[in-house]
Amino acid sequence: MTLTQLEIFSLVAELHGFTAAAHRLGISQSAVSHALKSLEQELGVELLRRHQSQVELSDIGQQLLLRARAMLGLANTLRQEAADARGMKRGTLRIGSFGPTSSIKLLPMILQHYRAAHPGIEVHIDEGPDRQVLQWLEERRIDIGFVVLPQERFDTFALIQDQMVALLPTGHPLSVRDSVSLSDLCNDPFVLTEAGSSELVSRLFSAAQLTPNIRYRCSQLLSTLDTVARGDAVTLVAEGSLPDTADSHYVKKPLTPVVTRQVGLAVLDRRQSSPATLAFIKLACSLQYR
Q: Which domains are assigned to the chain?
């Protein structure tokens, strides 16, 4: 069993295909097939089930995938520690990011300083909803992720705090108020943004024993803003996720009572994190954000 075989196995499982994995790795499809066949023969189990152009994991394959990713993560940490001894001239850092708050407001500034300090570290960034970033962390697909805190099952590091605000179409009856309550937002059609703080929004209404009239679900914040601007719905979002430039087609109002949101970084286990990951955390925590 080799790390190369485990890397190929992990990538085939992630991409659900031999061809896609071969393309990503820059090798032939036959080389991918040979590596997996050799791994299955050595372990004596079927890791993947082939279905025409796609593959799926067997039950034992699903169990071993987590082990394989853990081994690959530790191998990467060893490489990073060796690179650290050489001045971190080489290495890889995999980051998970969600929504505009991390992808637009936080990550660009951090990366600017990080690349200047560690130009030899290759940075990979995957974007998805906040719950997907948490899943990537658990599955060891990423080294570090931006998350909404608290997250008790991870080691976390707070970066910024903002507040939840209601977005209303311009001219909405509630727009003349200084603030609005959650119950006020249950009287109109509601648009829920699946990315970003959707889990927090759902928990807030649930804790208050309220049910918003969800008519729209948008995967991106821009679509949510457009829905509100057209006058089709109201919504609840984190203030830090909004564009810096104001839009005359909607107004934002703070909640009563005030609801804050904290965003930070999370790793599966700080003690096993690579030097490149720890350097990213140290730098991110040292910066001042607007």
A: 1-87 (1.10.10.10), 160-261 (3.40.190.290)
